TrEMBL record:
Pfam families: Cation_efflux (PF01545). It is a multi-pass membrane protein. It comes from Lutispora saccharofermentans. InterPro entries: Cation_efflux_TM, Cation_efflux_TMD_sf. It is found in: Membrane. This is Cation transporter.
Length: 210
C-alpha cells in the first residue's frame, strides 16, 4: 500500500535526520562558525518538522481513509507548530550572525562532512517523496518533498560556505562568506516557516516541478 510506503519513508527520514543535530552540535565545541551554528539550529527545527509530519501521517492513515475534518485540523495544527518553530529559529540565527563577535572559526570539518552527506541524502529523499506524491497525491508527502528539495539546496549553500572556511580560514573574505551562509539559511527558515503557516503553495521557494 502507498500509505505504508509513505509511512516507511517518513520514518526513514526521522532516523536519517536524527544524527545531524547531534553531530553538528558536537562540532560546535571545536568550531565557532556562525554558519555551523545556524546549520545546527536549522537541522533541529527540520527534525521537529519531520517527526510531527510522521506522527500526523501515522494518525491519519492508521485506520483507513482519514476523516476530512480531522485531517484538515491535524494538518493545520502541525503546519502552525512547525512554521512557528522555523520562523523563531531563523530569527535567532539572524541575531547570532549579525551580532556575533567571534572571529576565530576553529575546526569546521565535522560540520562540512555532515553538510556534504546532507546534499546526497536529502536529494534522494526529495526524489522519493516526489515519486510517492505523483503516484498517490498526499498533502503531507507533498510538503515533505518541498522541504527536502529546500534542504538539498541549503545543504549545498552550507557546503560551499564551510568549504571556503576550511580552505582559507584566515582570508579576509572568510567572515563575509560565513555571514552570507548564515543569512541564506536563516532566510530559508523564515520564508518556509511563513509558507508552512499560511499553507501557500504558489510562493514556495525552489518549488518542485510536477
Amino acid at each position: 500500500m502507498k500509505e505504508k510506503s509513505g509511512e516507511r519513508t517518513l520514518l526513514a527520514s526521522v532516523v536519517m535526520s536524527s544524527p545531524g543535530p547531534i553531530v553538528v552540535g558536537a562540532a560546535l565545541f571545536f568550531g565557532r562558525s556562525s554558519t555551523q551554528l545556524a546549520d545546527f539550529i536549522r537541522r533541529t527545527a527540520e527534525l521537529v518538522s519531520i517527526v510531527v509530519s510522521w506522527a500526523v501521517f501515522r494518525i491519519l492513515h492508521k485506520s483507513g481513509e482519514p476523516d476530512p475534518v480531522r485531517k484538515d485540523k491535524l494538518e493545520r495544527t502541525a503546519n502552525l507548530c512547525v512554521g512557528a518553530a522555523m520562523c523563531l529559529s531563523g530569527a535567532a540565527m539572524l541575531f547570532i550572525a549579525l551580532f556575533s563577535s567571534n572571529t576565530e572559526k576553529g575546526n569546521v570539518i565535522p560540520g562540512l562532512v555532515i553538510a556534504v552527506l546532507g546534499v546526497t541524502t536529502n536529494s534522494w529523499f526529495w526524489l522519493r517523496y516526489r515519486k510517492l506524491n505523483i503516484e498517490k497525491p498526499d498533502a503531507i508527502l507533498a510538503v515533505q518533498g518541498k522541504l527536502y528539495c529546500a534542504k538539498s539546496v541549503v545543504d549545498a549553500c552550507v557546503t560551499i560556505s564551510l568549504t571556503f572556511l576550511a580552505a582559507a580560514p584566515a582570508a579576509p573574505m572568510a567572515r563575509y562568506v560565513d555571514l552570507g551562509g548564515s543569512i541564506i539559511v536563516a532566510a530559508y527558515l523564515i520564508m518556509n516557516g511563513i509558507i508552512t503557516i499560511c499553507g501557500r503553495d504558489d510562493i514556495v521557494i525552489w518549488k518542485q516541478n510536477s
